[in-house]
Amino acid sequence: MVMCAVRQHLLRGSCGAWARFLQRQSRGCVYSSVHGFQQEEIREKLQAFPGGSIELLTQESGLAVLTINYPSRMNAFSGSMMVDLEERVSQLEGWTDGKGLIVQGASGTFCSGSDLNAVRALSNLQDGMKMCMFMQNTLTRLLRLPMISVALVEGRALGGGAELTTACDFRLMAPGSVIQFVHKHMGLVPGWGGAARLVRIVGSQNALKLLGGAVKVDPELALQIGLAEEVLQGEGTGTPLQRAENWLSVYTKGPAPVIQAVKKVVLSGRELPLSEALRTEKDVFGTVWGGPANMQALASKSKHR
């Protein structure tokens, strides 16, 4: 299996506990050949079902925008788009200047899950499990990116699209938008890691309600249960994307190494046992202590102003 770029990037630093964390997590991914998963094999199968694209735009500010683009299918994931997403995540893992990421859908809707053409063609159990592992790997790597990520939800986020929103650190919703885990209506449960992440975001009881009832979560309910961070009101200047960029810029202001370090210590606290999270925090601390941003802050003596 090709080594995940996130591991290559982080092992270049001195963050020993963080590197050990990624090694234990199958080189930054959930599944590898140890689990019977052959990434190149499923990539070839998925690429046989083309349509749409995943576009990535990086900015000098350190913010990137990832766009799910298949408007004729409500931005549903074709097989080739699943491969595109994995490739875009690899690009982001190697982006040393990255601080923030916005995930959006094209043409005013977020994502309606999987394209049924690919789903029908991969309906046998073996292929379905391989697709499941491929997307779990990709979305786990997306969540573990050393940058702060936001899902900008316009229109509908259904099924796999709802799962994609949970692979971001935050969710911002436009008025009239809906997040709905419709898997039950398809005789399924989430398979891209969405259920496990949803429990961590809203708690087990709310997750049971959303999955068991296939509840249409509007912005008001999303705020109430903690699924969304904020509703981007229609009034005001700028597009929803511009307002999302303004919202995210509050948390990504500062040098990239510092923002990345913040994400790393939060991620280790979320995923590791306490003793290991503390050791990782110590190692990440060592990558910024005495660094340019730290020395500049000390020179300005601005801490208590």
Q: Could you describe the 3D structure shown?
A:
This protein starts with a helix and ends in a 5-residue tail after the last helix. Helix 4 runs parallel beside helix 6. The longest helix has 19 residues, at 125-143. The chain has helices at residues 5-11, 16-24, 39-47, 79-93, 116-121, 125-143, 160-166, 194-202, 204-212, 219-225, 240-252, 256-271, 274-288, 292-300, and strands at residues 53-58, 63-69, 100-105, 148-153, 156-158, 170-173, 178-180, 230-231. A 6-stranded mixed sheet has the order 1-2-3-4-6-8, with helices on both faces. Strands 5-7 form a two-stranded parallel sheet. 49% of the residues lie in helices and 12% in strands. Strand 1 and strand 2 (63-69) form a beta hairpin. With 305 residues, it is of the alpha/beta class. One of its GO terms (molecular function) is methyl/ethyl malonyl-CoA decarboxylase activity. Keywords: Cytoplasm, Lyase. Belongs to the enoyl-CoA hydratase/isomerase family.
